[in-house]
UniProtKB/TrEMBL annotation:
It comes from Undibacterium flavidum. This is Methylated-DNA--[protein]-cysteine S-methyltransferase. Keywords: DNA damage. Gene3D superfamilies: Winged helix-like DNA-binding domain superfamily/Winged helix DNA-binding domain. InterPro entries: MethylDNA_cys_MeTrfase_DNA-bd (IPR014048), MethylDNA_cys_MeTrfase_DNAb (IPR036217), MGMT_N_sf (IPR036631), WH-like_DNA-bd_sf (IPR036388).
Length: 181
């Protein structure tokens, strides 16, 4: 049964693409992708309403089938100069690797907290893979969320496993048992 939230999604997104954790909402504006949003399973898929949304949907599906797939989408320019600097650094992290907020901060001569804020403000998750940025002592937050059992950190864990990041590629039950020791 459709919820009011899922119906609203069909009006504000140009496409809603199924993902292993729920959906990815795609918003377009004037031949650009203007936003990608992680959506929970209560949403419903929506066929692309324009060519740019169709391109995004195809590339998102390719990524989930092969995390080495390189995105090539027309992204609407957004963010401050600082955020763009952080996002450029994040985009250079290879699949299968992570960097800490501190490592990114050192690379761009900033502070880890500022890097975390820029990561959380990322309009294009997956394309700019902010899930590849972790805290020095563990997973860290994701999309301005840090609830250990929440939806967004579940997505971050899933994406790191999909990309075969060694410390996140083990089954979750094994990770939990090792954390207890």
């Amino acid at each position: 049964m459709a919820t009011p939230e899922s119906n609203l999604g069909s009006t504000i997104f140009s496409a809603i693409v199924p993902a292993p954790f729920g959906y990815v909402g795609v918003r377009t504006e004037h031949q650009y992708i203007s936003e990608l949003v992680y959506l929970p399973p209560r949403f419903q898929d929506k066929s692309p309403s324009d060519l740019v949304a169709e391109l995004a949907a195809q590339q998102i599906e390719h990524y989930f089938a092969d995390p080495d797939f390189p995105f090539d989408l027309p992204l609407k320019p957004v963010g401050s100069e600082f955020q763009q600097k952080v996002w450029k650094a994040i985009a250079s992290i290879p699949r299968g690797e992570v960097r800490t907020y501190g490592q990114i901060a050192k690379h761009i001569q900033s502070a880890p907290r500022a890097v975390g804020q820029a990561c959380g403000a990322n309009w294009y998750p997956l394309v700019i893979p902010c899930h590849r940025v972790t805290a020095s002592g563990g997973l860290g937050g994701f999309a301005h969320h840090d609830d250990e059992t929440g939806f967004h950190l579940g997505i971050k864990r899933y994406l790191l496993r999909l990309e075969q990041v060694p410390e996140y590629s083990k089954p979750e039950s094994t990770q939990h048992q090792e954390a207890m020791w």
